[in-house]
Amino acid sequence: MRIIVGILLVLATFLGAGAPALAAPAVDDATARKIDELLAVRAEAGDLPRAELIERLSARLLGTPYGANMLIGSATEPEQLVIDLRRVDCFTYLDYLDAASRSADRDEFTANLIATRYAEGRVEFTQRKHFFTDWAATPRVAATDITAELSPAAVTVTKHLNAKADGSTYLPGVPVIDRAITHIPSAAVDGAVVGGLRTGDYLGAYTPEAGLDVTHVGIIVQTPAGPVFRNASSLADYQVLDTPLADYLRTVPGIVVLRPIP
């Protein structure tokens, strides 16, 4: 199991008007350099729309090795704030991109990462946004679920997130949440749907499995050769890469699309 640099932060509140600045946790040198690179991209982007900024930031992490289960914390182990860009999984990849898109310096990056990853800014296992659709449903809301707007073929199913079919839970200590999950079946992702996708949209691979909304996440990038799914892949290449969207759709039941809030 890889060594993860993290620090346990005990925080009551942060962010908002008059909130005190947060001291950045210690990170390894490679991660520090990568954060600075992302912040430089953010500074150079000026007033570039946020979705396009996210694409630029995501490109700087192409080739980053994949690492499974990057976060530390459970019902029995204290949650730690992990900031480690030497490896990323599909969710932490998006965490870092979202935080960097909002930040001008390392302290802001840390604060925004917490706001992206945890509900109400509390670094606790039970407050972690474990599910993709938490980004559109749990403060601080980072994106809007636009799935239903993209296709009349969109299907909505009520899911009991975190509840397995056998009655147990995926994440002990985390409550079961009833949520309406809308997805577009892959077979219904036609030219109109693809044309409605924008660079920087967050895309999740819908799963019909009980208790889960998606099994993988990444971002959409529109290219001259067609749209690609930029993601931290756990398949053969084990790195952040671009997969032609059409190829990826053949491997999943459907998609859930969230659009970053400007």
Automatic annotation (TrEMBL):
SUPFAM superfamilies: Cysteine proteinases. InterPro entries: AmiA-like, Papain-like_cys_pep_sf. The keyword Membrane does not apply. Keywords: Signal. The keyword Signal applies. It comes from the Bacteria. Residues 1-23 form the signal peptide. This is DUF1460 domain-containing protein.
